[in-house]
Predict the structure.
Amino acid sequence: MSAAPRPVPTLGNGLLGQLPAGVAAPAYDRAALAPGIAHIGVGAFHRAHQAEFTDDLLGVEFGRWGIIGINVRPPVLADTLGRQDGLYTRLLRENERVEPRVIGSIVRVVDSQDDPAPALGVLASGEIDVISLTITEKGYCHRPASGVLDETAPDIMHDLAHPEAPRSVPGILLRALEQRMATHGRPVTVMSCDNIPSNGAVLKTVVATLAERRGGQLANWIGANVAFPSTMVDRIAPATSEADLAFVESHLGYADRAVVVGEPFRQWVIEQRFAGRFPGWNRVGAGFVDDVEAFEHLKMRILNGAQSTLCYLGVFAGLEYTCDDMADPLLAGFIRRMLVEESLPTLQPVPGVDPLAYVEQSLARLRNTAIRHRNHQIATDGSQKIVQRILNPIRDRLRRGEGIELLSVPVAAWMAYLIRASARFGSAWRVEDPYAARVAGLADRIGHDPKALAGAIIAIDTIFTAELAGSAVFRTMVTERLSGLLSGDPVGYLRAVCAA
Ligand code: CS2
């Protein structure tokens, strides 16, 4: 009779003393760790980035900086981190190399998907000095083209009518700030860590607009007691797959439902604008600066611009991951040319950065075969990404009378992806984007006539500014690219553009 297989233990406090050799563990006493940070949006990126920086900080300078992780949208955290005392494994991967480490900075998780009360209880608490957010671009309920609050967004309309039971993140923040004002009055830093330009200013604008609509003292109190620093965050950390969970179980010998995989590269630049106590993340590699703008443009236009271009071209060419796109010499060659010839010249100098070296480093990161970042994942919510990654550099070039032969390709590719010109590419896909229905509706009404279709999409003024929509060069180039992509042989067209 063979022995029954030994059950695999689950990661949790009880396992911390018995981790396999080679798995790093928190270098501080977790039992003594009290919370000071509340984070909204505990996805892969937060676990691979801010939570790791915080874990580093606690190891060199222990203090009251444990994180309470809050989700106000799916997934539910109770089933994963909640069962593991907030612990999870972070795997850094680069080609063959794997570096596992258990991160301990998240001390508690709170699910507030159906009811804002649990989130509000944490955010309004006087023990919280920093509220950080990774809620994806669309979580800000702003108009991407201008950064102002979209007062027609359904959740915002709801929150304007029912501020005591908010659904949107800006509405939840406003309610929490109101409760802070009414109770202890302690200042707080509210820090966006999403990939939108001037993310702190955008967050401040949407919250302040709601506060003004609300009336009373709240807007003034926020102005005097709340800081909204902008940040630039960077680390490629794709959605965790079943294969990643299986890897931990088979190679490390324990079960972990909250594994996260990231590349070795990481960067964090934070605007020095704090209210009250703030963690010394600058002691562990983050940069505290007076102005983040140059850093965020560099990152969004180069690294993110490349990702958002490759994702569509890759889907059209039948490829699955960014690293597959980069293994295609034509696509890789096109991306390098686009970045060097068109995106890079729009950047202001960035202190301590050689821009060409930054391009090469970004391309090397995208070639990392151990990072399985799906093209469709990056294509998700493209309407919220394209402004800062592609349209702003286009605007800057047009103002200087420069050409946009290459940057017009991702604009048309985004359109072709959204109208699901899938039959033409021999594959089908579901579009996840707040503008999916609107663009599909335009395509149904107009058909696939490139000129009419490009014109109708460019007329969406929450994405395309009047300046861009009014540019004949822009319309002509995008129409030409869209005609090519909607032609009988879109892949052939792409190859011709890439090879040109
Ligand atoms: C990606 C980003 O899905 C996406 O939009 O472009 O998540 C990207 O991987 C990160 O910004 C890298 O820091």
